[in-house]
Every structure is written in structure tokens, then in C-alpha cells.
Amino acid sequence: MDRKIALRQKLRKLDFQSLEVFYNLYIYRSVTEVSEILSLSQSTVSYSLNRLRTAFDDDLFVNLRSGMQPTNKSIVLIESIEDILRKISACGIEKKEFSPQNTETVFTIFSPEYFEMLIIPILFKKILQEELKIRFEVIRPENKVPFSMIYEQKIDFGIVVKQSHYPHNLCHQSILSDQLVAVFDGPSRTHQPLSIEELSKLKQIFPSPWLTNNCMVDNWLKKHDTQRSISIKANGYYSALRMLTSSEMMVMLPKKIYKKVVSQHMSLHTREVHQKLPGFELDMIWSPLSSNNPANIWLRKQIIKACQEVNAS
């Protein structure tokens, strides 16, 4: 039998799930992580990988200490497989008219406190002013971004700190960027930026409204062979500010959050941090299955407008 015909017959036996397994293994390099992202058992992921290996007559991924490393054939295949998956995922649903004044709609949003404090109030103000029949259910981050729930449209939007990779079957867009400032209670003693040495020695309150117990500050300090002194871990920004009052400690806050709360905490002052400390970007992610849904399109536009308003203020 002609080799190309034999290969074509093998490939015909592959399904969408097998291609998803291939793509996510290429991105995450871990059977365990892929099984969680795709909501599959590890044995199912392994079974799909074996089918892929048979179809392409190649190991595709080699299990090393550093993870599942792609073979040369996988590197060649990834672009084509990603394109196939994207086209399948983008098969849109029929468009219908959406009227927020007349259609009762509940949007479920996975978002950190940052988004709740800055963007949700702007959206809610519009809802009240225009008497829209819109409600929000906000899910706060715990351990991991629920990519599979977003893809399955159980969650309409995820608001996350920009990541280096997203699952192929999700759409994403950058919506906000921000920088961190050091916040203190009491009168300012100096306007000099915080040095790395000060940043590592000052006792700090750590607000943890995100997914992890550390943040970009800790990762950045680690690159400089040092770490900061965390005295208290707070549940969020407001909690951290209450703890900061009349203390000698410091809290790192996004500048936009500080501008939001400073009028309620007149005794606060800030110091800029080391100029090389990186900022962060916030991304909005959603399922391509709802990309053409008029309600989804409407809310995406409102979120972008609200972010533009925050940037302009």
C-alpha cells in the first residue's frame, strides 16, 4: 500500500480530543496538567497520546525530568494542528439580536479583586443608569484558572494576569496594564524610590487577591538573589489597608488601586519602587464558542470601554 494512503488511513482514526491532547502536551509538557485542563483522566490522555504516536509513527513526546519534550516531528506538526483546532473551535453560532434593556442575562465572570474594584463598579453604574436587565456572578480566584469551564461556557469571561501561554481553544485580549507602588501610613519622610535593599528589608503586608502566595515582586527579587520580609498575609487590598493603618509596615499596591482608595485613606503616602521592577497586564479570556454570541460581544465592548475609562482617569 502507498505510504501516503496508509498514513491518511491512520490519521482518519484520530478525533478532536486527540488533537487537543497533542496541542496541550506541547504547551504544558505534563500529562497531569493536561488531564486537569481538559478534564480528562490521565489514562485517557495517555491513551490519546498512544493513538497519536501510532498515527504519526513517532514518539512525538519524550518523558524527561524537565517534562514531556516534543520530538522534531512534533515541532513540525504543532502549527498545522493548532490551525486545525482553531478553525474547528471558531465554528460560530448563529447571531441573534441582543437587547440588554429587554433580555434578562446573567454573566459569570472569573476575576480578581483588582477587576472587581476598578471595572465592575463602572459596568454596574451603566446597568443602573440605563435600567439594563443584566446581573453579574463573580467568581474569585482560588488555585488555578478554570480554563475548561471557560471553554465550556460555564464561565463567560476570565480576567487574569497575562500568561505566556493560553490553551488554543480560548480567545484572549489585553485590557489593562499597571505598575506597583509602595504604600505607607503616615507622613512621607523621603521621595526617593525604594532600593532593592529596602524592598527586601522592610516588613510588609502581602495582599493575596490573585492565584498564588507570591507575585511578580517575589519573582523579581529572586532574580536578584534576595527576598522580602512578609509579616502578614491579607485576603485582599482593603484588608491589607486596614492592617497598614498606624503601623510601620508597607504594602505593595497597583497604582490604579491606590488612586481608587487614597481618598478614603488620607494618611497614606507612596514611594516609587525600583525602576526595573516590572509591571503587569490584565487579560480577558473567553470561549470561541461564544465569540459570535451578541450578548458576549456586548459585554466585551463594555469591559473594554470601562478599562479605557480607568486608563484615562
Task: Report on this structure.
It comes from Xenorhabdus cabanillasii. Keywords: DNA-binding, Transcription, Transcription regulation. Pfam families: HTH_1 (PF00126), LysR_substrate (PF03466). Belongs to the LysR transcriptional regulatory family. This is LysR family transcriptional regulator. There is one protein chain. This protein has 313 residues and is of the alpha/beta class. It has 3 domains: 1-92, Arc Repressor Mutant, subunit A (Orthogonal Bundle), CATH 1.10.10.10; 105-177 and 281-312, 3-Layer(aba) Sandwich (D-Maltodextrin-Binding Protein, domain 2); 180-278, 3-Layer(aba) Sandwich (D-Maltodextrin-Binding Protein, domain 2). Helices cover 42% and strands 21% of the residues. The protein is built from 13 helices and 12 strands. Strands 4-3-5-12-6 form a 5-stranded mixed beta sheet. A 5-stranded mixed beta sheet has the order 9-8-10-7-11. Strands 1-2 form a two-stranded antiparallel ribbon. Helix 2 packs across helix 4 (42-56). The protein is flat, with a radius of gyration of 24 Å. The chain starts with a helix and ends with a helix.
